[in-house]
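step 4 of 6: structure.
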Amino acid sequence: MQNIRNFCIIAHIDHGKSTLADRMLELTGTVEKRKMREQFLDKMDLERERGITIKMQPVRMKYSDYILNLIDTPGHIDFQYEVSRALLAVEGAILLVDATKGVQAQTLANLELARKHNLTVIPVVNKIDIADAKVEESAKELMELLNIEKKEILFVSGKTGEGVPQLLKTIVEKIPPPKSSGDKLQALIFDSFYSLHKGVIAHVRIFGGHISSNETTFLFHKKIEFKPLEVGIFSPEMSKTGFISSGEIGYIATNLKDPSLVRVGDTIGQESLPGYFEPQPVVWASIFPQSTDEFENLKSAFSKLRINDASLSFEVEGSKLFGRALRAGFLGMLHLDISVERIIREFGIEVIVAQPSVEYELIFTDGSTEKIKNAEMFSQSEKKVKEILEPWFSVFVLARSSDLSKVLDLIQKNKGEVLETKTISEDRLLLVSALPLRKIVTNFFDDLKSATQGYASMSYEFKENKPADIVKLNVFVAEDEIPQFAKLITKDEAEFESHRIVDRLYEILPRQLFALKIQAGLNGRILASRTLSAVGKNVTAKLYGGDRTRKMKLWKKQKEGKKRLQESAKVEIPHSVYLKIIKRD
Ligand code: GTP
């Protein structure tokens, strides 16, 4: 164990974690030169196409007499749960800062996480090969942040490899070797994925004892015995060793085929480790299979995806009109996009995603409360609502001082409140504010990027639930309320949203034999209304010649018939129309 070092690379998005990992893989001879490709540890096609890391990825390297276990982590805030889990499996973290950008919001958030776990932090300034990199300024920011001297900072280029040998040496010198908790097996499951042939494959850090592929072992929380099919390490591909012991990072092929049995955070062994907190989703969306008979496949796909993405949560929801769907919770809009894309690509299921929503809390006049994730659930509540609460988040924006007024404008426009400003360096500051979550997940981040030409970065965390100016927009077709079309909006959006939804329905609803009234509004007050004219039927087509009185008679009869129809109108709204309306824009 004295010769093992376990560490992560943490940073803001795009600061160069995966590229630096490439150089380490090369220098330690872990990956042969001819097999090397850029961002080697980003294994998924989706990661390579989008140029972002989605999954943490462990790898074992040999360096002189040492074993280095590195876990590359994602940088985007939506995947921070990956980082927090990786940090619990290691003793040290390389805090990487892109010298062209300096310290950014996720640098701060990830540093805080590393400190919480008492990890040894090695500060590194990256991308020093770039001509206009602000190497000195970035170092100064790190010195202030960590309260250290310049000599403690390393300067590297993940691209050219400059400074990386020195960094490997520093890892061995500064990061402490792992300590054993004893002879009894204690393995923390920090990640997992599903294999058709080997069942759930758990990624583990062994804290005590050892595990081998021919010994029966135990899943602590599920109280299940199992005999591993295979035990091994990542080098970087899975490679069978038959045995891993205290201080090591590796994998265990459990041969358990039921995805619900193996949970990230569980311990393999007879004595439990602390495990992980459950992440709280920030946005919810209903996911429908394109074809209703694919529902069971969709559910099974989500269960398997969840094995590889512990931050995903979902429950089955049933709607008479829409059929069965999954109501799934995500850690942000990118997480939603990536998860849906993975369901389509990895499981071959086409899906329709409804407009996402944050979670609101209804407070009823009798004092009881209920959490709702869409307006349909609101419609189902029979009790009188006294107040609606919505989540507010603390938002940490790191920006150039010269952009301060633009950022303040944006916070104000999104109904936020500024709480605090702190100086990070001569020309950059940290602005702490509070904003309603629904504003953060819709457009705040994009607006911030464009207002500051991409210079500002942000991170956020839950703050509190606060009374919201939220109302339910009701939609009526042929004077019947259609609860599935209801929407939760703010009062000031009511006029615009009413017209938008009425116009949309006017375009897509099939015309009927009678005129169809389409309306939207709040609590009995109609704000938008349009009438879709009836399909015309030429009732006099069969009459030859000009018998005017006979024609008049038929027209009169038709008019009366339409009136009768309208009075007893029951509109059959096709399933496809429902889906078009609730579908995400
Ligand atoms: P996420 O995991 O998605 O947060 O990204 P990352 O931190 O792993 O960054 P990645 O390694 O994907 O690098 C982001 C971009 O910066 C890529 O285009 C790299 O080629 C580039 N890059 C990384 N390191 C260096 C460096 O030292 N010098 C230069 N010039 N470019 C670099």
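step 5 of 6: annotate
 - Residues 472 and 488 are 5 Å apart (CA to CA).
 - Residues 11, 13-19, 39, 51-53, 74-75, 126-127, 129-130, 157-159 surround guanosine-5'-triphosphate (CB under 6 Å).
step 6 of 6: archive
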